[in-house]
């Protein structure tokens, strides 16, 4: 076991808890749904063929579980996600995903344009076998073009 | 086309048909493109090893999505995944199978919705539960 490392949590980080980010736009389009479905290994045609999706009763190709669109990233402009996720620089440079918790309130289909706001809801740290771990929980609220909340996501990030 | 599952068909303790996905480097690159997560620990072996990992690791969010695929295939087109949560407790390495499993822990009605709660997880080829989680699906009734 290595020497316990000093805390990296600052007052500035604590003050950021609960602050809502600027909204970020996520587009859910047909081909991004197809690409996501292909990556996850779906063979069901509803995720690829709009006619099959409609005959199954969907209004377009459904976003598979876990997919809530892509943000619009323009090279040379600030990444819109940069302020949404935990943005503080610490001595802990390596990152891992700690967990994903998605609550779906409405269905999401190709053609939807979602707007998400993010807020840091928890910061903690602990000494682990890989050294000091900083654990952050960020909560995202996604709304669709009709203003309905479609999903609430709690994303746990680990820095070590 | 998945078969439709109905609320009446489900009982506590019932197992969800398992889904096995081999996660080779092509799969991880597909996921990088599909998800927009281009962190190099998932497809660049040298980069992964420079950060202290033994090799490239499977994206946590891919395992979350695979658990979602297992549920989608089970519940059919008229079912809905309403909650899907998991923790990435253990790493899954490239070129191995990720095996998704689930078991029904309860059934309930809430505001007229018929809901089924599950314990879900993914295992590595040695049977270690690297990704434990919980889920809730909404199902139609036969009535």
Notes on the structure:
The complex is a heterodimer of chains A (160) and B (143). By secondary structure, chain A is of the alpha+beta class. Chain A is 14% helix and 35% strand. Chain A has helices at residues 11-16, 30-40, 50-55, and strands at residues 24-27, 70-71, 95-104, 113-128, 131-143, 149-159. A six-stranded antiparallel beta sheet of chain A has the order 2-1-4-5-6-3. In chain A, strand 4 and strand 5 (131-143) form a beta hairpin. Chain A is elongated. With 143 residues, chain B is an alpha+beta fold. Chain B is built from three helices and five strands; from the N terminus they run E-H-H-H-E-E-E-E. In chain B, strands 1-3-4-5-2 form a five-stranded antiparallel beta sheet. Chain B is elongated and about 55 Å long. Chain B starts with 14 loop residues before the first strand and ends in a 5-residue tail after the last strand. The A-B interface holds A 32, 35-42, 44-46, 56-58, 64-67, 70-71, 94-105, 107, 130, 154, 156 and B 1-2, 21, 27, 30-31, 33-36, 39, 51-52, 59-62, 64-69, 71-73, 77-78, 80-88. Strand 3 (95-104) of chain A pairs antiparallel with strand 2 of chain B, so a sheet runs across the interface.
């Amino acid at each position: 076991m290595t020497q316990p490392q000093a805390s990296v949590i600052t007052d500035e980080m604590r003050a950021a808890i609960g602050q809502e980010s600027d909204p970020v736009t996520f587009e859910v389009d047909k081909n991004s749904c197809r690409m996501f479905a292909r990556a996850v290994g779906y063979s069901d045609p509803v995720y690829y063929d709009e006619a099959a999706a409609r005959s199954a009763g969907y209004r377009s190709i459904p976003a598979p579980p876990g997919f809530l669109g892509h943000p619009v990233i323009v090279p040379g402009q600030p990444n819109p996600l940069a302020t949404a996720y935990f943005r503080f620089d610490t001595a802990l440079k390596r990152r891992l995903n700690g967990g994903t918790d998605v609550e779906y309130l409405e269905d999401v289909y190709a053609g939807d344009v979602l707007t998400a706001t993010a807020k840091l809801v928890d910061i903690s740290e602990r000494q682990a076998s890989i050294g000091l771990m900083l654990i952050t929980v960020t909560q995202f609220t996604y709304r669709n073009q009709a203003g309905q909340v479609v999903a609430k996501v709690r994303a746990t990030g680990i820095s070590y | 086309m998945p078969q439709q599952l109905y609320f009446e068909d489900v009982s506590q303790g019932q197992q969800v048909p398992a889904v096995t996905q081999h996660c080779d480097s092509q799969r991880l690159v597909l996921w990088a493109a599909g998800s927009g997560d281009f962190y190099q620990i998932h497809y660049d072996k040298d980069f992964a090893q420079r950060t202290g990992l033994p090799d490239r690791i499977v994206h946590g969010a891919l395992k979350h999505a695979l658990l979602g695929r297992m549920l989608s295939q089970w519940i059919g087109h008229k079912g809905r995944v309403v909650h899907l949560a998991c923790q990435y407790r253990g790493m899954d390495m490239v070129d191995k199978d990720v095996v998704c499993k689930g078991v029904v822990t309860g059934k309930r009605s809430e505001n007229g919705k018929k809901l089924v709660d599950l314990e879900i997880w993914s295992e590595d080829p040695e049977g270690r539960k690297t990704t434990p989680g919980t889920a809730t699906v909404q199902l139609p009734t036969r009535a």
